[in-house]
Every structure is written in structure tokens, then in C-alpha cells.
Amino acid sequence: MIVRKETRVLVQGITGKQGTFWTEKMIGCGTQVIGGVNPKHAGTEHVGVPVFASARAAMEAAPFDLALMFIPPAAAKDAALDAIEAGAKTLVVLTEHIPLQDVLTMHAAAKAHGARIVGPNTAGIVTPGEGFAGIMPGHNPNIFQPGRVGVISRSGSLGTLVCLNLTRAGLGQSAFIGIGGDPVIGTSTREALEALDLDAGTDAVVIVGEIGGTMEEEAAEYARGMKKPVVAFIAGRSAPSGRTMGHAGAIVTGHRGTYNSKRSALEAAGVAVTDLPRDIAEAVASRL
Amino acid sequence: MNLLEHAAKHLVLRNGGIAIPQGIVCHTPDEAREAFEVLRRPCVAKAQVPAGKRGKSGGIVVVTNAHEAHDAARSLLGTCIAGHRVSAVLLEEKANIAKEYYAAVLPDAAGRAPMVLFSEEGGMDIEELAEANPAAIRRATVDVLKGFSEEEAAALVEGAPHDAVLAPVLVKLYDAFRAHDAALLEINPLAVLDDGRAVALDCKFTLDPAAASRQPELAKASVPEPLTDLERLAAEAGLKYIELSGNVALLANGAGLTMTTMDTVSRLGGTPANFQEIGGEAYTKAEAALKIVLAHQGVKSLVVNFCGAFARTDVMAEGVVAAWEALKPDIPVFFSIHGTGEDEAVALVRERLGIEPFDFMEDAVKAAVEAAR
């Protein structure tokens, strides 16, 4: 889930407006884009790379590691299955509003083929100085700088702000992992934390979480045993509580999922939780 | 997107082959009287509201004749239960219950798969049961590529007094969850009757909003969210706006950054007037969004907080400036702008509004909170 110089990227939906714009940015900052997919333009070139009919056809002609999806919600499941069956190791799914049942099918197929999904509804992943896959302004040196702090975020906009604040404080990033804002995502906070814990280029980790679900509580269990310092910010402290009709959701999560539950779980595990986003950089600096 | 009990039973359960009691939906006391004449047996009159614990709130009344059916409907219709106005009553044959069970299917984020829940202790207090005795709720994670088999269902209900009749119902419930694009499908109670049949006495169904366009019938039957006038206006414009009671208005992009802006307003001693995010494809709608934000009564200051990745801050700033120049509101506005398109956006705000954005969002929020005092 950490993008490297060697990572070979296939862009599904490369010929669309966003696909075109962000593929150019990715190539511009050194990402190895081996090609794109659009069945209607197969055999042509777009932004300097070949366009294939499918991920499967791309894998035969130009092997890739990571499939990045600029695909509308209704077509997302088929595009994901194409990439998974082609043998992609990682899928970065940017698409928001993919029907839940399609997402569940995508996760099951990924599990069966040993592929990792990042997202859905993620802004992507960035390794400053190496490359990026997504719609993060990873090419913008004012926001991202190479360094040794790993950042995990459910939100693209807030994650961008946190990286900007780190950069302004002189703290570069070893990796940004946008895990996505959907309720059922392929890479959890805990898994991203573990990857950054094992990453030799990372000295500290920032978790940018938000209310809902139990991912921050599960990440806290892992953080407890970590030697690297972990700092967190949780969004949604003042959000009005939503209405839930059925009881089933409450059964699975119990009282977990609230701001207080996340904050106390993280603090009990030795994670510094800040009140404001601007305090994150100082909290990291003081623990390095 | 929640369905009322009667709609969930007819459009989801019956469609999925799960037995439901005979019932008729009534909108007036006279309709309830006529419905009883059709059913002609002891019935329950059930207020149709998208909320749990109706029984405890007096929303379920047993009736034994047409006169009682009429009176029960008259007493229920127009009342408010758990914040919802009752506009329909379901008159349903009264079941002769041997035992009540609980069954549900929902997505499990940790397992990234659907989870089937089953308990022998069905009835009203499933939440309390989960708290007091979590072991009483059995769980099975399903591989959607294979489906939920009779064998897996049998293993889940094994040892329950009516296991043979329950297992097929759970398979159908899972299939209905998948086929109807459910975010949640729950039967509580799932009753086994004196004659041995398994019947769904209640049903909760939540439609996945992302699948609404491919489930038009279910989307049409779902209960509209109770919205304020401004919230309705925003929804019609395709915007996520939540009206709050404070006086510091805010506009930001992305749910995470918008929540953080709200949190920061309250952390710094202010009260947010709204939640309004224009992230994703909505970043081009800043002008419409700001007009709704400013229409909120009692707004005393505004903070605009952009940190753009996909959302271009120059495009959003253009919308903000256009709305500001059109409305000329008599309140101060404070900006923080970073990310994609930042230089153009900052230049635009500086030139057209004569305002210098803050470097840190916290400083913009602090100024807005102080101005609202």
C-alpha cells in the first residue's frame, strides 16, 4: 500500500477528464505509469502511454502492480474484477458512491486472489519523492515533502491539510496512505499502521481518523505495542448524532465508534491525540 | 433510506419468499374498520413509523373487532412516535406465537463481508441483549462469491428448537439482502407459530443510497428524511447541508475537513451554524452552497476553509466570490485556502473582496468565532 519508484501503475479510465489530468501529474512526478484502460480507445496512445482494452490485456503486454481506478460508480465493480483477475497486487479505488453490494463483491474477489484494495472513496496514496497514485496533490512541494513521517487518513481534504502542516513545520512524509471514507474499505487504519510500523523509512505515524466504525479503536490495539511514536487527530467531535433505525449496527459496534471512544482507546494505548490539526506537527516533533 | 414495516415486508421479504402475516395498510379509521371486515380475525394495529421500540411507545394495539380496529387507528393516526408522525397503520392478523427469534444481515466492516446474525432471544430488547449477553447472538460471515448455503445456515441455528424451519429463512434473508441492495435487513421478531411456520412479524430495511437508482421501487417507497427548508433546498441542488443552531457559518470541502472546521469552531468557543461540504464533484457548486449557508437566520460570521486535492480551490473561490458579490451580506468572512489552485484562489479573494486569507485554518476560525460574539 506504499507506492514506490518501481511500482508499475495502470490507470483504468485514463482518457476521462480527471484520468487525463491526474495521470499527467503522476507521470510528471516520476510515477511509472505503464498504460491505461479504455475499451473504446484500445491500441491508441494517451498522455504518452498505451491504452488497452482491459486490465487483462494490459497485463499481457505491459505488466503492472497497481491498478488505479478513475471509473464511475456503476462500472466500478466490473473494472475492479478485471484488474483483480488480471493479477493486480493493489487496487486504488477512488470512486465514491459505489453500491455497497458491489463493494462487498470487490472485497471478496480481492481476498480470493490475494489482492489488496485501497478504498473505495480514497484520494489515493503518495510517497513524496517517489510517486503517487490518485488525486492527491502529491506533485505539490508546498504540501508534500520527502521525509520520515507516515500519514494515514480516511479523508482526502483533511489528510492534505495535515501533510501541509507537517511540511510547514519541516517534517516531510515517508508515505501518505488515504484509506478512504467508505463504510467498508479494503485497507484498515490498523493495516496501514502496521505497514508504516514495518517501513524502514518511517520514524513516526500520524492517524487522521473520524467518527463512525471502529477502525481507530482497532488501530489503538496495534499502536500499544509500537516503538515508533503515533499521533492522532479525530474529526467529528461536534457532529450531531445520526438516526439509526435498525438495531443491528449497534449490536456489532456496541458503544464504540464515538469521538470519546476513539480518543480514549488511542490515549490508553499511548497515542497523543490533539485537539486541533495545527498541533499535530508539534506533537510529532516532540516525540521524535 | 429506510422503508416502513409494511413496505419492507411486501417489497423485500415477500419478494424474497419469506412468509409475512396477512395485513392491510390503512390511512383512516374507516379504512381500518373495512380492513378488519376483510381479515375477520384478531389483529394488531401497528403504527407505521421508521423507529424501533414502537410497542413500548404504545404504537401497537391488539384489536378483536371492526369497532376496535377503527378506534385503534383513530388513536394512532396523527400522533407522534419517536419523533415521527404516524400517517399509516398496518392492520395485521395476530400471530399465535410459539417462540420469537432474531435474524439480521448487515455489512461487517472488519470482515469486509456480509454478516448474518441470529439469536434465540428475539423480541424487543435485542440491543440490551447484545450488551448483557453478547454470546446469545450468533454470527456468520458470508463469502459473497459462494453465497450463504443451507449448510452454513443450519450450522448457525443449530440447537435452536425450530432449527429446521429457521435455516431456510436465513438463506432467503441473505439472498434478499444482496438482491435488494440492503444496507441493513432485520427481522425482529422472526416468529415460529403454533402451526410450525416461520413468519416475519416485523421488518427493518435500509436501502443503500448508492444503489437507489437501480432500485427505483424501493427508493420511491423509502421514508423521506425530515429536512428543514434550507436542507431541502440544498438536497435539491445536490448539496450536503445540515442546519445547526449556532451563529458561525462555515463552508469547506470534504467531509473530514468540514467536520474539523465545525469541531474547531466549538473548540475555540463558538457555535457552528451549519455543516456544508462541497467536496468531490460538488466543488463546482460553491456559489449555490454559500447562498444556502448565508440564508440561515442568525448567522453572524462566516469561515471558508478549503484544502483542495480533487476539489480545485480556484473554482471554489470563484463561486464564493460570485455569491458574495451577488448577496453583499452584512457579516465578516474569514478564509483559509490551500491545495490545488491555491495561488489563483488567494489572488481572487484578495483582489475581488480585499481580504487576506489566513495561513492556518485555526486562525480563520478564531477570527470568525470572535466576530460572532
From TrEMBL, chain A:
<feature type="active site" description="Tele-phosphohistidine intermediate">
    <location>
        <position position="247"/>
    </location>
</feature>
<keyword id="KW-0547">Nucleotide-binding</keyword>
<dbReference type="InterPro" id="IPR005810">
    <property type="entry name" value="CoA_lig_alpha"/>
</dbReference>
<keyword id="KW-0816">Tricarboxylic acid cycle</keyword>
<dbReference type="GO" id="GO:0009361">
    <property type="term" value="C:succinate-CoA ligase complex (ADP-forming)"/>
</dbReference>
<feature type="domain" description="CoA-binding">
    <location>
        <begin position="2"/>
        <end position="98"/>
    </location>
</feature>
<dbReference type="InterPro" id="IPR003781">
    <property type="entry name" value="CoA-bd"/>
</dbReference>
<dbReference type="Pfam" id="PF00549">
    <property type="entry name" value="Ligase_CoA"/>
</dbReference>
<dbReference type="InterPro" id="IPR016102">
    <property type="entry name" value="Succinyl-CoA_synth-like"/>
</dbReference>
<dbReference type="Pfam" id="PF02629">
    <property type="entry name" value="CoA_binding"/>
</dbReference>
<dbReference type="GO" id="GO:0004776">
    <property type="term" value="F:succinate-CoA ligase (GDP-forming) activity"/>
</dbReference>
<dbReference type="InterPro" id="IPR005811">
    <property type="entry name" value="SUCC_ACL_C"/>
</dbReference>
<dbReference type="GO" id="GO:0000166">
    <property type="term" value="F:nucleotide binding"/>
</dbReference>
<protein>
    <submittedName>
        <fullName>Succinate--CoA ligase subunit alpha</fullName>
        <ecNumber>6.2.1.5</ecNumber>
    </submittedName>
</protein>
<dbReference type="GO" id="GO:0004775">
    <property type="term" value="F:succinate-CoA ligase (ADP-forming) activity"/>
</dbReference>
<dbReference type="InterPro" id="IPR036291">
    <property type="entry name" value="NAD(P)-bd_dom_sf"/>
</dbReference>
<dbReference type="GO" id="GO:0006099">
    <property type="term" value="P:tricarboxylic acid cycle"/>
</dbReference>
<keyword id="KW-0436">Ligase</keyword>
<dbReference type="InterPro" id="IPR017440">
    <property type="entry name" value="Cit_synth/succinyl-CoA_lig_AS"/>
</dbReference>
Automatic annotation (TrEMBL), chain B:
<keyword id="KW-0067">ATP-binding</keyword>
<dbReference type="InterPro" id="IPR013650">
    <property type="entry name" value="ATP-grasp_succ-CoA_synth-type"/>
</dbReference>
<keyword id="KW-0547">Nucleotide-binding</keyword>
<dbReference type="InterPro" id="IPR013815">
    <property type="entry name" value="ATP_grasp_subdomain_1"/>
</dbReference>
<dbReference type="InterPro" id="IPR017866">
    <property type="entry name" value="Succ-CoA_synthase_bsu_CS"/>
</dbReference>
<dbReference type="InterPro" id="IPR016102">
    <property type="entry name" value="Succinyl-CoA_synth-like"/>
</dbReference>
<dbReference type="Pfam" id="PF00549">
    <property type="entry name" value="Ligase_CoA"/>
</dbReference>
<dbReference type="InterPro" id="IPR005809">
    <property type="entry name" value="Succ_CoA_ligase-like_bsu"/>
</dbReference>
<keyword id="KW-0436">Ligase</keyword>
<dbReference type="GO" id="GO:0006099">
    <property type="term" value="P:tricarboxylic acid cycle"/>
</dbReference>
<dbReference type="GO" id="GO:0005524">
    <property type="term" value="F:ATP binding"/>
</dbReference>
<dbReference type="Pfam" id="PF08442">
    <property type="entry name" value="ATP-grasp_2"/>
</dbReference>
<keyword id="KW-0479">Metal-binding</keyword>
<dbReference type="GO" id="GO:0004775">
    <property type="term" value="F:succinate-CoA ligase (ADP-forming) activity"/>
</dbReference>
<dbReference type="InterPro" id="IPR005811">
    <property type="entry name" value="SUCC_ACL_C"/>
</dbReference>
<protein>
    <submittedName>
        <fullName>Acetate--CoA ligase family protein</fullName>
    </submittedName>
</protein>
<feature type="domain" description="ATP-grasp">
    <location>
        <begin position="10"/>
        <end position="223"/>
    </location>
</feature>
<keyword id="KW-0460">Magnesium</keyword>
<dbReference type="InterPro" id="IPR011761">
    <property type="entry name" value="ATP-grasp"/>
</dbReference>
<dbReference type="GO" id="GO:0046872">
    <property type="term" value="F:metal ion binding"/>
</dbReference>
<keyword id="KW-0816">Tricarboxylic acid cycle</keyword>
<dbReference type="GO" id="GO:0006104">
    <property type="term" value="P:succinyl-CoA metabolic process"/>
</dbReference>
